[in-house]
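Morning!

This is the sequence you dropped in the shared folder:
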Amino acid sequence: MNTRQILITAALAGVAAASALPAHAADAGKEKCFGIAKAGANDCASVTGTHSCAGQASRDNDPKEWKYVAKGTCADMGGSLKPGGKQ
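The structure's back. Tokens below.
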């Protein structure tokens, strides 16, 4: 790899890293809210380990499934910040 290729690779890596920052900053304003996800609309793995991916909740409003919501809105949506129970 010559110097030009190294500089281009470094520049592309910098652009990729900079584009990832806004998404991370947006996540800081969100929190996990349990019990509000519709079947097939959860954001990630079940807390009980029954599945490991988003979109695999099998029933609506399961208290062990969660979605990311804006901070401070979970209770208003009828959810809980803790799995399986109310806040």
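Headline: The beta strands are 30-34, 66-70.

More detail when I'm at my desk.
O.
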